[in-house]
Write a structure and sequence with these properties.
mainly alpha; 4 helices
Length: 106
Amino acid sequence: MKKIRILSRNFEMIMGIIGSVIGIFSGSFLIFLKSVGPAHTPFLGFIAILASVLGLASTYYVNKNPDMAGIGFVIATMFVIVGSDYINVISAVFLLAAGVSALFRK
């Protein structure tokens, strides 16, 4: 009988959760900055928050369909980068690491 090797996707899940949580906090911070002064538009903060929610949804699908989750992580990374100037780079790095790992790890 042949043993089937099960691949653990914990790395992608942890990176996706960390990146999404950081993205939600930094998007909320961008919205807060708009209430303090005319630094940023709150629309960019909403884009960053929605992209982070997409990253959280992708962490749910990592074990079921890793290719689809990887595409979701990469799309979330693009929108997180568009949604903020420099504050969300850390979130984008975590989401991109999760997406590339989910796509290319077999």
